[in-house]
Amino acid sequence: MTKAALNRFLTEYPAALNDGVGAIFVGAGVSMAAGYPSWSELLSDIAIELEVDSKNVHDLAALAQWSILESGGATRVRNVIKSEIGPEKPIPETVEIISRLPVRHIWTTNYDRLIERAFASISRPLNPISSPKDLALRVTPGASLLYKMHGSVDRLDDVVISTDDYELFRSKRGPYLPLFQAHLTSMSMLFIGISFTDPNIRHVLSLIRESFTEAPPEHFAIVRAPQKTDFATEGEFAARNAQHKLWTKDLKRYGLLAVEVNDYAEIPALLRQIEKRVAARRVWVSGSWPVERGGSESADIHALAEDIGRRIGETGRHLVTGAGLLVGSASLSGFLGALRQGGGWDLERRLIARPFPQPLAEAQPNREEWSALRLELARQAGIAIFIGGAKVVEDKLDVAEGVEQEFEIAKSTGVFLLPVGASGGAAKTITDMLFGSELPSSGQDAVRPTDKELKELSAPWLLDNKDGRRKLVSLVFEIIDRITRAA
Questions:
Q1: How many other CB atoms sit within 10 Å of the CB of residue 437?
Q2: Residue 218 pLDDT grade (very low, low, confident, very high; cuts 50, 70, 90)
Q3: Looking at CB atoms within 10 Å, which of 2, 65, 216, 251 has the fewest?
Q4: pLDDT in tens, 437-455
């Protein structure tokens, strides 16, 4: 894999996801990482029955076709799929990360239910579309869509596996094609776990070629390079390796830029980098301040939160908010102001809000619900800015425990912690805890500002006037830019 290909992938694909135009195609390699068989392994018993060697049969769809002809029906092949693909295997990390990425459209030729189970494990809505008829159904609001082009193990009467199925795909499953072609035109597609020996992938590539004979849109493909341990002899390895190199070059005809790995086990690390870069565009503004307090102090906190929210909007980032007292509304106001000034709201994509239900007078908040909301906010964000965090107790300001809890949750989920100590309250307490701590403050693993930056963020005079606040906001975003580049 060239460094240029890797850099393009780590730069362009996260941007596509954040812009709402990133899609994913999941190939057989992902299922194999979970313990499911390859195509050749899936049909090995059938090959023995037919007295052929599946390893030497390059057209595995033909092997399934021969079995159907010999047995007089597809029952034997379907039973093999049911017994080999039906059992629930542990969900691999690659699929877990996919379920967390802000991707709305996922394509696959796999029959298993790994993706469905991964989404269900985090209570994220997903609409599987395993039959062309499913395309006509109303989509669940907010759900991602999983297009199972070749069917699903839970609907074995409608899977694509034989030569007849491929040849009649356009007449039986044709409604998938214009949608797939539209996504290839308008989105950046990431192909994971594809192999040039997989007849499913050859079929998909032919569809791309059919749609774009010249200058196709660019996409990315994470592919596994052949390894010496895969082959019995040096000659076999050399031949397959030469074939692989030619194939990866040929992928450019389909607009696919190959990002090579030596083993499928390397894919999660790549996707974690994608996830981290996506999250770096999502900024959680955590904090609160008693509205009844009034005075210049409250006005300064409000102005600071509003300025930070506005800068989040102006720099193309996403706002994550729990709509906390004063700080939440002020940051949201600034953020919306920036979006309006830019000529468009784009709220569905760039505003991630989980408002905390406020109890009636004399009633207590639902602590369990609030904790769940805080965890959801932390999972959505890559950076957490802490502003203020105070409450009134017996006519005196005290630290708000809720903001301290948000700090602990953000810390446990690996969010970059950025307290503005000059704003006082919990933000000052958090600054004191981070100052001199062993948490990394530089490089790819940074989760806090440097001690020098924490000290600069804590200068109380910065809140006294507009110029000071401007400097404070600039410092906050200089830190954000630094850690984003490091990621």
A1: 14
A2: confident
A3: 2
A4: 999 998 888 999 999 999 9
